[in-house]
Amino acid sequence: MFRHPKVYLFTILIVLISTASPAQERYYPPANADWEQRTPGELGLDASILQQAVDIAMEHENSVERDLRIAILKAFSREPYHEISGPVKERGGPAGIILKDGYVAASWGDIERVDMTFSVTKSYLSTVAGVAVNQGLIRSVDDSVKTYVWDRTFDGDHNSAITWKHLLNQSSDWRGTLFGIEDWGDRPPRGGDIDSWRGRELRKPGTHFKYNDVRVNLLAYSLLHVWREPLPVILREKIMDPIGASRSWRWYGYDQSWTEIDGKRVQSVSGGGHNGGGMFINTLDQARFGLLFARNGQWNGEQLLSEQWIDAARAPSAPNPDYGYMWWTLKGDADWGNVPDHIYYAAGFGGNYIVVDDKNDLVIVTRWIDSSMLGEFVEMVYSALEPE
Fold this sequence. Notes:
31% of the residues lie in helices and 16% in strands. The protein has 388 residues and is α+β, with helices and mostly antiparallel strands. The protein has a single domain, classed as Beta-lactamase (3-Layer(aba) Sandwich). The strands form four sheets. Strands 2-1-14-13-12-11 form a six-stranded antiparallel β-sheet, sandwiched between helices. It has a four-stranded antiparallel β-sheet with strand order 3-8-6-7. Helix 4 (121-134) crosses helix 8. The longest helix is centred in the N-terminal third of the chain and has 20 residues, at 5-24. The radius of gyration is 23 Å and the shape is globular. The model is unreliable at 1-23 (pLDDT under 50).
């Protein structure tokens, strides 16, 4: 039977589309199941070079003591009145995982061990803020926090000018005491004394970057007032359960960081392990979190976090081009050699990192690496990427 050429063409197109569709689907690791692995070659990676990268991570362990109570007290010993107020856990050895196109290309160490992750916690905290913005609980990051938290925490001409953006990019210079810890006591200048630190000149919010855990914890406290539920519950329901994370992670605050919300006693969590507490989590769950960002907030067809928020979170801030919304960038002075500057990463004390590259669908999680070797390690991973 004769068929018009257009019919044949239409049929061929249908076959091509139906054949191509499965290949275009992105892999997401299912919950409560083994994460699928592929050989480096199948993922466009040079196996021998990738192994060299893994060797760097394994052979250059961070020097902080495995007894993290000792490590914390040593690291922050010059801070006046510093003490451990939250849970601390002895750490494991070097561990990590490299994902390409969602599949496991390489892993090392005990990737199921739950460890402290220190300031990587900040990137989880900013994500909780992102969900609040996406859901309209925070109308704009340029809003004054005082309009949401009116319990005197943001009183005064200086503190009342602080916005959510200032807390997120660590440029608020908030002045005060939170849960018994003074803002000026966190990483004070090398010179000076307690009197000069207390009486320092205040910087206009938004003009000066200062890495400060007290103010990060202030963001957590402020978000608690917005959500009116414990932040670990929000993170679990909105992010960690949807991406199939285990139930082994925990997020802690301090012994004294309890407050009352709607008649219930709730703990305000910390954004790191500076005084103990913070996120305790395994490498596999960190990798899922990183993959969510590499996929621009989408997981299996569900948009858990808007692309607009992720773009804002990884964008260099005016006070510090190396820092966004509690994610680090390569847009400032950082030099990792032959590594593209579009990557961004979460970083924590002791050599804990999540590196995200959405353009190459690449995620790197490394734990307890010597931080001075991080750039060389990541550069080696990129050397393993075979040109397309």
